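Exercise: predict the fold of this chain.
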Amino acid sequence: IPNWKTWEYYTGLQYIWFGHSTILLRIEGKNILIDPVFDDASPIPFAVPRFQEPPVNLSELPSIDYVVISHDHYDHLSRKSIQHFVGSETQFVVPLGLSSYLIGWGLNHNKITEFDWWEEKNTGNITFACTPSQHFSGRMGPRGNKTLWASWVIQGQNESVYFSGDSGYDIHFKEIGKRYGSFDIAFMEDGQYNKIWYMSHLFPNETIQAHKDVQAKKMQPIHFGMFQLAVHDWHEPIYEVLRIAKERNIDVLLPKIGEIVHVNEPLTFDKWYEIP
């Protein structure tokens, strides 16, 4: 369980990875929760179960200032997790069309801001920029590709973060790096890939290249370690991305799920992912 006193009083950029693509970020003294999924990743009970329970419940998190969503797939947008915030002061930052879900689930429309690609909004000391990804959207029912999918740039006065969401590899990563780099850290998709999904998900070698393209100093791999959506071993993305990162001198951060990471401090991590 994270030490929330440490979380509250540390003034630098920090985050906690909760598995898959769920990140709690603290920047400019604000708590930003990205793609919160604290339950299963399917509308069909037990179809896509979690490997393990999250280290904390939503009710145990500190007060959340913003929730950022990348797209509407079930492993990134959870109705149960979103409804935890009904009646709260939390603001939602989402791609075009996603407000239809959130309002239907009980959120006030005044708490939601929708973005198209390349749109920005400054909220005090933080700027949110909606950036492209190469993916798709749709949940069960006749709503395929009716809402936008995106990656996100989150900038403070002195620090900045990139969150890839889900994406195949393409030229948008270089354009994002050109417009917004360099980043203190990039949260880059690395896991749940398959040869037939090459247009919409990254392979480990592409994860490394995309990280280079966006011009980030450090990388946290995401989209692994919590749900099995592809046929590869759960630890394969870690070993592959570490092997390639070593060859290309990339600083990869691999904290335990639930561990507080101070991004710009000297960092060492247990090799919790190693298989005996």
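Check your answer against the key: The longest helix spans residues 236-248.
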